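Students often ask why we bother encoding 3D structure as a string. The short answer is that it lets us treat folding as translation between two languages. Here is a chain of 292 residues written in the first language.
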Amino acid sequence: MAALWKDEYKVGIDKIDEQHRQLFDKIEHLLEIAKSGDRKSNRQECMDTIDFLVDYTKFHFDSEQALQREKKYVSYDQHVKIHEDFKNTVQVYKELLGKDFSSKNLKSFIGCMLAWLVNHVCICDRKILKNIPLQNLESFVDTESFIKSVAQKLLTEMYDIPILSVKSCIYKGDVDGAVIVRTIAEGENRHLFLYGMSDKLVGVLYNKISGMLLPNVDFMDDIERSALMEIGNIISTYAMSAIEDNAQNGVRFQSDLYVHEYNATDYNITNSMILEIMTDYGKMDILYTRLK
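And here it is in the second language, the structure alphabet:
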């Protein structure tokens, strides 16, 4: 397995880069145990590693936030909120694994950590030294321009996948994709996001997150599923900051993943719009609607 840490993840501050490397190394160690199938005999080692991640994440975030105060970083408050939310996520997983040390829970934790950490290091942390805001405040004239902005952030800014063309169409009860990620965001209102992706695009996204191959979307394990669902949480977080003024004050996200077929009967999302986005790796459909 290729190393999870890559030099391209460096943000240019030796202390911070070394702390990031430590986090990636510990996640890689958990991944090796999870993939080996020898989980039970390594339970204590896994829990010790998770304890380290909980403590070291707090230590690392404190270091990063001290740097941001020193540099008078423009998005300091938003960055702190992202850190706090993730610390809570790690703590929830620690408690869950303490009660139920199952393969599913361990792999879900690893997938979530992978997707979040790669995104945060490559997108958020690289903006600190250049004092670039985490989220540009934009006003969208219509839903189409809003979804285009979401797609641009997800594909081009986060994962360096150019968008070739964009076409809008009315949702008619079907979202195309080998994999469909559904994210429900609950803030002042409830919002639904659907991300339908071709199998090739899914494979490229997962490889960019983990450095590993995704052989077949029909046989994904819990690490792969969790990492892809976390992408839905991450991009929907950015979207919510444009949708709701108070989105940073407590939005809850719940993502689910479907392979080849999405059953939309549980939500009334008729008359919504889908954006069909073409890339070199196939198509992505994005649907957004506010739920009643």
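Translate back mentally: The chain has a mean pLDDT of 84. Keep this in mind for the problem set.
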